[in-house]
C-alpha cells in the first residue's frame, strides 16, 4: 500500500502536468465519441470571414510582392483579433482548464470527418451521389457538385489522410510546447491555408507566406503522422517516407497523401474545380501515385488505417501521465 502522502506530494509537484494531460486526453476522447457537426463548428464562420475578406483584397493583376503583402495583412486582420480576444478571456477565467478543454475540442476538427466519410460510403453504396457530394461540400474549398464517384472517393480519402496532422498530432505537440493559446493560434493560421489553397492560381502569391509558414511549423507533426501511417500500413512502405516526388505543387500534406496512396494502392489528386466571381474554374492538380482508381472499399480501408493511427496518439496522451506516475512511485519506494 502506498501512503496517502505520496498522492499529496504527487499532486503538489506534478499537479499541473497531470491536469494538462487529463484536459488534453478528455478533449481528444470527446472529439472522437461526440464530434461536433460541421455546420455548428465555429471554424465555418472563420472560413466565411476569410473568403469574404479575400474577395475584397485579392487583385491578381497586381505585382506578386503586393499580393504577398495583401495576404499577410489579411491574415493578421483575421487571426490576431480573434486570438487576442480568446486569450484575454482565458486569462480571466476562474476555471481555465474547462475552457482549455472546450477550445482543444474545437481545434481537433478532424474527428468530425470520420462520420461524414461513413455517410459518404453509405450514400455511394445506395447510388446516392448527390447526397455524398452534399456531405462533402462543407469540408472542402473546392466545388463538389460536379465530382464523379471516383472524385468523391478521392476527396474523402485525402481528407481522412491529412486532417489528423493539424487536428490530432499537431494539437498534442503544440499543446505540450505552448498550451492552448499556441494551439489556437497555429490552428487559425492553418485554417487560412484551407480557405486560400496555394495551388489555386488566384491564391498563389496571396497565400504564399501562409503556405510557407505552415510547411515549416507543421513539418514535425507531418513527419510524426507519416511515421504512424507507415507503422500501420506495414514496413514495406517505409521507403515512401524518403523516396517522394520533389514537387508538391503547393498541396498541403502531399507527403501524407503520397504515403497513404502507396499503402492503399490507389491514385489520389487530379483536377479540381473552384468558383471565383460566380464562375467555375478548373485547376489542374498533380496526380499522386497514378495507379488504380479508388472505390468505396478503399474509403473503408482509409478509415481503418487512420482510425488506428489516431487511436495510437490518443493512447499516447494517457500513457505519459501513467508512466510518469509510475516513475514517481518507484522513486518514492
Automatic annotation (TrEMBL):
Pathway entry: Cofactor biosynthesis; adenosylcobalamin biosynthesis
A Pfam family hit: CobD_Cbib
Presence of keyword Transmembrane helix: yes
Segments traversing the membrane: 17-34, 68-89, 165-189, 209-231, 302-324
Keywords from the named record: Cell membrane, Cobalamin biosynthesis, Membrane, Transmembrane, Transmembrane helix
Keyword Mitochondrion carried by entry: no
Membrane topology type: Multi-pass membrane protein
Subcellular compartments: Cell membrane
InterPro entries on file: Cobalamin_biosynth_CobD/CbiB
Domain of life: Bacteria
Protein family (similarity comment): Belongs to the CobD/CbiB family.
PANTHER family: COBALAMIN BIOSYNTHESIS PROTEIN CBIB
Protein name (database record): Cobalamin biosynthesis protein
Species whose genome carries this gene: Shewanella electrodiphila
Lineage, top ranks: Bacteria, Pseudomonadati, Pseudomonadota, Gammaproteobacteria, Alteromonadales
Amino acid at each position: 500500500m502506498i501512503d496517502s502522502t505520496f498522492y499529496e506530494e504527487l499532486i503538489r509537484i506534478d499537479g499541473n502536468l497531470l491536469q494538462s494531460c487529463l484536459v488534453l486526453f478528455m478533449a481528444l476522447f470527446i472529439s472522437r465519441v461526440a464530434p461536433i457537426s460541421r455546420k455548428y463548428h465555429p471554424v465555418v464562420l472563420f472560413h466565411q470571414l476569410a473568403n469574404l475578406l479575400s474577395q475584397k483584397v485579392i487583385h491578381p493583376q497586381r505585382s506578386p510582392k503586393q499580393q504577398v503583402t495583401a495576404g499577410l495583412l489579411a491574415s493578421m486582420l483575421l487571426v490576431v483579433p480573434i486570438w487576442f480576444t480568446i486569450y484575454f478571456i482565458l486569462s480571466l477565467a476562474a476555471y481555465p482548464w474547462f475552457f482549455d478543454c472546450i477550445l482543444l475540442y474545437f481545434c481537433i476538427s478532424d474527428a468530425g470527418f470520420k462520420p461524414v466519410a461513413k455517410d459518404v460510403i453509405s450514400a455511394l453504396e445506395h447510388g446516392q451521389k448527390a447526397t455524398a457530394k452534399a456531405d462533402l461540400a462543407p469540408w472542402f474549398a473546392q466545388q463538389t457538385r460536379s465530382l464523379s464517384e471516383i472524385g468523391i472517393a478521392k476527396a474523402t480519402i485525402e481528407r481522412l489522410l491529412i486532417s489528423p496532422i493539424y487536428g490530432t498530432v499537431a494539437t498534442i505537440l503544440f499543446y505540450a510546447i505552448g498550451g492552448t493559446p499556441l494551439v489556437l493560434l497555429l490552428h487559425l493560421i492553418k485554417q487560412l491555408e484551407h480557405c486560400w489553397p496555394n495551388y489555386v492560381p488566384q491564391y498563389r502569391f496571396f497565400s504564399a507566406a501562409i503556405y510557407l509558414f505552415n510547411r515549416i511549423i507543421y513539418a514535425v507533426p507531418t513527419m510524426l503522422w507519416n511515421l504512424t501511417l507507415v507503422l500501420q500500413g506495414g514496413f514495406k512502405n517505409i521507403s515512401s517516407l524518403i523516396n517522394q516526388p520533389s514537387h508538391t505543387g503547393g498541396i498541403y500534406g502531399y507527403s501524407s497523401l503520397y504515403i497513404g496512396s502507396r499503402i492503399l494502392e490507389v491514385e489520389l489528386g487530379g483536377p479540381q474545380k473552384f468558383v471565383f466571381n460566380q464562375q467555375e474554374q478548373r485547376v489542374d492538380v498533380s496526380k499522386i501515385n497514378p495507379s488504380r482508381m479508388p472505390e468505396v472499399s478503399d474509403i473503408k480501408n482509409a478509415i481503418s488505417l487512420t482510425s488506428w493511427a489516431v487511436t495510437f496518439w490518443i493512447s499516447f496522451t494517457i500513457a505519459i501521465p501513467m508512466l510518469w506516475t509510475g516513475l514517481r512511485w518507484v522513486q518514492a519506494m
